[in-house]
Write a structure and sequence with these properties.
Mean pLDDT: 76
Pfam families: TPR_16
Order of helices and strands: HHHHHHHHHHHHHHH
InterPro entries: TPR-like_helical_dom_sf, TPR_rpt
Protein name: Tetratricopeptide repeat protein
Distance between the termini: 28 Å
Radius of gyration: 24 Å
Shape: elongated
Largest sheet: none
Helix content: 55-70%
Structural class: mainly alpha
Number of helices: 15
C-alpha cells in the first residue's frame, strides 16, 4: 500500500518534557526581545503582550492543551510575521484536527522562511492530509526547485502526483529520488504501488524483487511485493514472501485478502482465486513455530 506521509513531527515535538519546558520558556523570552536590526530595515512586528506571552508559555508547557489553537491564533494575530509562531499554530491545529487552519498557518510559515526547505515539505504533507493533492504537488515542486537533490522533496512530489492521478509523473519523481537513494524502501514501495495503479503489476513486482531476499527490508515492501504477485496470479511465490513475516495459516489468510485487493486496483491483470483457495484448504495447520 502507498505509504502516506505520517507524517512527521518536528524535532521539537520529540523533546523530553523538561526540555520542552525549557524550550518554551526560551521561546517566550525571545519573543519579548527588542530586535535592534529593525531600525535599519523594515519595521518589526510588536512584541507580544505580557498576558499573551504567559498564556503562550502555559500552552506550550502543557503540550496538547485544548486551548492551544486559540492561544496561538491570538499570538499570530499580534505577530503575523513570526514564522516560528505560524509553525507552532500549524502543529497545534493539526493535533486538534483543524487541517484547514493547519494548512493556512503552514503556508504562511513557508512563505516567511523563503528558501528554507523544511517548511515546504511540511506544507506538502499537510496539504495531502487536507485532501488537496494539487496544492501538495505545488508545495513539493517548490521544495524540489529549492533542493533538486532532496529525496524527501522528490518522494513527496511523487506521492502527491499519485494522489492527483498523475501516475506517470509520479513514477518519474520516484525514479529521480531512487537514482539518489536506491535503497529507500518507502519510495520503492510507493513506486510499486503507482505501477500497480497504472496497470503495470509485472513492473511493480520487478521493482521490489530484491525485497524477497535482501536483509533489513521493511515488511511493508515485502507485502507490496506480495500484492503485485497476487495481481499476477503467482500465489506460490506470494505465499513464500508472506511466510517471511508470518506463519502459513496467517500467510494464506492475508494472501486471500491481497488477491481481492489486487482485483480491485489492478483489474487488467489476471487474478485467480481458486489456487489460493486450494492453498487455504490444504495448509491451515502448518503455521510457523
Amino acid at each position: 500500500m502507498i505509504a502516506f506521509p505520517k507524517l512527521r513531527r518536528s524535532a521539537a515535538c520529540r523533546l523530553s518534557a523538561p526540555a520542552r519546558t525549557a524550550a518554551a520558556r526560551l521561546a517566550v523570552a525571545a519573543l519579548g526581545l527588542v530586535v535592534l536590526a529593525g531600525c535599519q530595515g523594515r519595521p518589526q512586528p510588536a512584541a507580544l503582550s505580557l498576558d499573551s506571552r504567559l498564556r503562550l508559555a502555559r500552552t506550550l508547557e502543557a503540550g496538547q492543551g485544548g486551548d492551544a489553537v486559540a492561544v496561538l491564533k491570538d499570538a499570530v494575530a499580534q505577530r503575523p510575521g513570526d514564522a516560528s509562531l505560524q509553525g507552532q499554530l500549524a502543529v497545534a491545529a493539526e493535533r486538534a484536527g483543524e487541517y484547514g487552519e493547519a494548512v493556512q498557518a503552514s503556508r504562511a510559515a513557508a512563505a516567511l522562511q523563503g528558501t528554507s526547505l523544511e517548511p515546504w515539505l511540511e506544507l506538502g504533507r499537510l496539504e495531502l492530509r487536507n485532501d488537496n493533492a494539487a496544492a501538495a504537488v505545488a508545495a513539493y515542486r517548490q521544495a524540489s526547485l529549492m533542493a533538486p537533490g532532496s529525496v524527501a522533496a522528490l518522494g513527496g512530489l511523487g506521492l502527491a502526483q499519485d494522489m492527483a492521478g498523475d501516475h506517470g509523473l509520479a513514477q518519474a519523481a520516484y525514479r529521480s529520488a531512487l537514482a539518489i537513494a536506491p535503497r529507500h524502501w518507502t519510495i520503492r514501495s510507493n513506486l510499486a504501488m503507482s505501477l500497480m495503479l497504472s496497470q503495470q503489476a509485472a513492473a511493480a513486482a520487478d521493482s521490489l524483487t530484491e525485497a524477497e531476499f535482501a536483509p533489513g527490508v521493511p515488511r511493508q515492501a515485502r507485502h507490496n511485493l506480495a500484492l503485485a504477485l497476487a495481481a499476477l496470479g503467482q500465489q506460490d511465490r506470494m505465499l513464500r514472501v508472506l511466510r517471511l513475516d508470518m506463519g502459513q495459516a496467517e500467510a494464506v489468510a492475508m494472501g486471500q485478502e491481497l488477491v481481492a485487493v489486487a482485483a480491485q486496483i489492478s483489474p487488467r491483470d489476471r487474478v485467480s482465486q481458486p489456487q489460493i483457495q486450494r492453498q487455504a484448504l490444504a495448509t491451515p495447520r502448518r503455521a510457523r513455530r
